[in-house]
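User: Some background: our group keeps a shared notebook of sequences we're curious about, and every so often someone picks one and asks for a predicted structure to add to the entry. Today it's my turn. The entry only has the sequence so far, pasted here. Could you supply the structure so I can complete it?
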Amino acid sequence: MVTQTRGGGQATQKLSFHEKLAGKGLTTDALLKKLKTLHNELAEMDQELVDIASLGQARKELISTSILLHKDRGVKAYAACCLADILRLYAPDAPYTQSELRDIFQFFFRQLLNGLKSADASYYNEYFHLLESLSTVKSVVLVCDLQNADELMVDIFRDFFALVRRDLAKKIEIFMADILVALIDECQSLPSDVLEVIMAQFLDKNPVRCPCIRFMYLHIPCYDSVWTSLLIVLQCKYAMLQRTNSSVMCANTLPISLFHIHRTKNSKTSEPPTTSSDNSTGLAHPFFIASCLS
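Assistant: Of course. Here's the predicted structure to add to the notebook entry:
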């Protein structure tokens, strides 16, 4: 029988890994060794040539609770890589239910938040592989079709802003930005809770030097709908703070509308402006609004 690829062509690559990943009596060391072997094989497989039927057993066992909830970091890191590879090989389809996809993406971002601490951290290469896969394959857009998409997107934005504050490698920032842009592109409008997470970055004591705002300025394109919505939220928050005489805002805060910082579409600037007088000129779009300046 001639096997077929997902595109209907003749498959030339079959997964040779057939070992069990779940079951009683399987030690952590044995499971870790198996996951390494599986990951190495999956990573080398071509999406256009793979016989996806051969992935069936591994696809099912990788989402078992004994793996997703395993205590060992190495097991979870390699399992996440394997799952990312499975999504790559099946793309643009997803071989999992909505509930399973929710668990998978929550699992992915927990690993990234806990694992991307520094280049010297354990299993850093595996976390890097996971992030790169989510960035290049764009499998993360599947999140937008899930029933709890808003909650997941809030977690993703919040987790990535937390990661940005760790001053990681520029390549990591670019991968994270690609993932956020893919989500923004895919969803018709950002959930209000996501806008709240973005807005929270502007309440930093020194927002102009805040790494999260710098990250958005350098890597996130200008989206009129996103930044217009953000401006409205910020203006409402500012008005509320004025009415309540809140001390949350800095003493030198001026009306939000005075701090529209623009960036030209074709700007080659590598750093965000540091004062309100540094606005770009020409064909510009609103990019971010600082709630206070140093």
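Suggested note for the entry: Residues 202-294 form one domain. Strands lie at 260-264, 284-289.
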